[in-house]
Amino acid sequence: MSKLLEFEKTGFLILENFVADSMCDLLRRHTLDLVSAFDPEGIRAIFTTNEQSRITDEYFFASSEKISFFFEENAFDTNGQLRQSKELSINKIGHALHDLDPTFNQFSRTTQIANLVLELGLLSPLLVQSMYIFKQPFIGGEVNCHQDSTFLYTEKGTVLGLWFALEDATKNNGCLWAIPAGHKLGLKSRFIRTEKNNTTFQVFDDSKYDLSNLVALEVKKGSLIVLHGLLPHLSYANESPYSRHAYTLHLIDKSWPYPKDNWLQRPNLPLQGF
Ligand code: FE2
């Protein structure tokens, strides 16, 4: 079966050995350097102010055009101090690594990736968003069942997700789980940015996912999981002593109008292709 047929049938693809081990190691080392250079003091202020939700929203919105660091939910104690080292407290980095960081820019724009997304139907792709996800040992939080199109919606086509495993991802350390063919059930909700710069969910279908249909997408380091934007997926908390680092990219096509009420807006850094 061709990649495209399989992808259309199940809503996901697993491509083993897509990234060389040495490249996975290089990206992990590089990211740890970014974390070392990052001063959490400014961010700590965000979590100790009375206007917490407004300021965290602003930080989140601004991250569309930046390399921003997001902490695990319980990273700070009541005094606003980190409970453990920053290296073990960060949940993710996003959302413009692929444009602003030369190492991730180069990694995200290889001909190997360009050819794959072309094969999957994006004729003039744009790279919308990147995230480095740490899924920290012991405290890596659960990510509820969701569809990526909820957060990056487009009218004419469906956002494409690329999930690169930089370490082995197993049931033990919080691998992805997905509902095969679940992308055919339609979009359940949209995450909308309101005119007052708040966010809200617009719900189309409030039925619950049947989680008994989930399958574990356990993959080796270097594997790429391709995700259809409508595919329901989740990851459970990581309670193991092993991290589960991954890098993700989301792409759309230039010919699809990009809604102004998606949370991610790039007024100062126009979206680019390969
Ligand atoms: Fe997702």
- Biggest sheet strand line-up: 1-11-6-13-4-3-2
Helix content: 10-25%
In CATH, what is the homologous superfamily? q2cbj1_9rhob like domain
Q: Tell me the distance between the termini.
A: 27 Å
Basic shape: globular
CATH architecture: Sandwich
Largest beta sheet, briefly?
7 strands, antiparallel
SS class: alpha+beta
Count up the helices: 8
Radius of gyration: 18 Å
Number of strands: 13
Order of helices and strands: HEHHHEEHHHEEHEEEEEEEE
What is the total domain count? Answer: 1
CATH fold name: Jelly Rolls
The amount of beta strand, in percent, is: 15-25%
Mean pLDDT, rounded to whole units? 93
Uncertain stretches:
none
| CATH class type | Mainly Beta
Which cofactors or ions or other ligands sit in this model?
fe (ii) ion
Tell me the quaternary state.
single chain
Description:
Helix content is 25%, strand content 24%. It is of the alpha+beta class and 274 residues long. It has one domain: Jelly Rolls (Sandwich). The strands form 3 sheets. A 7-stranded antiparallel β-sheet has the order 1-11-6-13-4-3-2, with helices on both faces. Strands 5-12-7-10 form a 4-stranded antiparallel β-sheet, with no helix packed on it. It has a two-stranded antiparallel ribbon with strand order 8-9. The longest helix has 17 residues, at 21-37. The protein is globular and about 55 Å long. The two termini are 27 Å apart. The structure holds fe (ii) ion. Fe (ii) ion is lined by residues 146, 148, 233.
Give me a quick take on this structure.
The chain has 274 residues and is α+β, with helices and mostly antiparallel strands.
